[in-house]
Amino acid sequence: MEKGSWRRGCGEGVVEKGSWRRGRGEGVEEKGSWRRGRGEGVVGKGSWRRGRGEGVVEKGSWRRGRGEGVVEKGSWRRGRGEGVVEKGSWRRGRGEGVMEKGSWRRGCGEGVVEKGSWRRGRGEGVEEKGSWRRGRGEGVVGKGSWRRGRGEGVGEKGSWRRGRGEGVVEKGSWRRGRGEGVVEKGSWRRGRGEGVVEKGLWRRGRGEGVEEKGSWRRLKKVGIKLRK
Fold first, then answer.
1. Residue 205 lies in a domain
2. Residue ranges under compositional bias (Basic and acidic residues) (predicted)?
């Protein structure tokens, strides 16, 4: 019976275009698409339709930045399948200098809201890395690990987590020197089991020429125990 089309803007700056018809086929009333910006600077684009198939009302995607400097990108839709409302991902930096990345979604599957990971430094000089998530499974909030130095010169390493299982907050180990000249090494943990705060051992010399060795530990209410 009736059909038509329309658009706003032209060329690189097309804002919106669409078509409509009445009284043919499956009863399509209206459909269209839109976009903002083009090429390297695309901010958003999407499409919509009413009155056909599975009832899709609206869908689209957006991004900020592109190439090496992508900051954020995502998509959304309303009224089809499992009811996904929104999902996306983000990152800061790229390659050797990646600092942070993550993704999020709302309204699909097990209700995952947000998850991501981060790291500082890479390769020989990795200092810190970790991940976090909210709203899925056993309620994990965050976990991570860190280290200082690598190989012969490792000084310290550890890991932590919050909000899962038996409530471990932090654990780690450290050492000074390695091989023939080991001076000291130890480990610690907080918030699990018997409340061990710190324990370790030390020695001077090695093999036939051992001069001294010992161990120690500290408990929450017991104090320090030292033995040789």
1. yes
2. 14-39, 51-103, 112-137, 149-189
